[in-house]
Design goal:
The chain has helices at 21-36, 47-51, 99-108, and strands at residues 8-11, 39-43, 57-60, 88-89, 95-96. It is an alpha+beta fold. Strands 1-2-3 form a 3-stranded mixed β-sheet.
Length: 111
């Protein structure tokens, strides 16, 4: 892709916490914003954030990475390690496919 072409990308963390997630988020944002001039949307709470209406998001830019963020544990976006959108457990005990809602969340965000 040619440098400078405007894009909007979404970034989420899912599957639970692991070491280095904030560093990985920072690397993606730095490259996207500074290297390509893209807009980055952070999706909160993994795929669960895409199931909410409106989707749970925050704009990510270099302003987010001040202070000790790289030394913080976890992920600044939050994560989820349950609730597979293809087999999502509902409060009544049924299992439903909510993958279309996740796709709609991406569309609502213009991703």
């Amino acid at each position: 892709m040619a440098k400078g072409k405007k894009r909007r990308i979404g970034l989420l963390t899912s599957g639970g916490d692991c070491a280095g997630l904030n560093a990985a988020i920072r690397a993606v944002v730095c490259r996207a914003v500074l290297g390509y001039g893209w807009e980055v949307v952070g999706i909160r709470e993994g795929t669960a954030g895409l199931l909410e209406r409106p989707p749970l998001v925050e704009e990510l830019g270099m302003h987010v990475f001040t202070g000790n963020i790289l030394r913080m544990g976890g992920t600044i976006l939050g994560t989820v390690n349950k609730g597979d959108p293809f087999a999502y457990p509902m409060p009544d005990g049924t299992i439903v496919d909510r993958s279309n809602e996740v796709i709609e969340g991406f569309r609502e965000l213009g991703l």
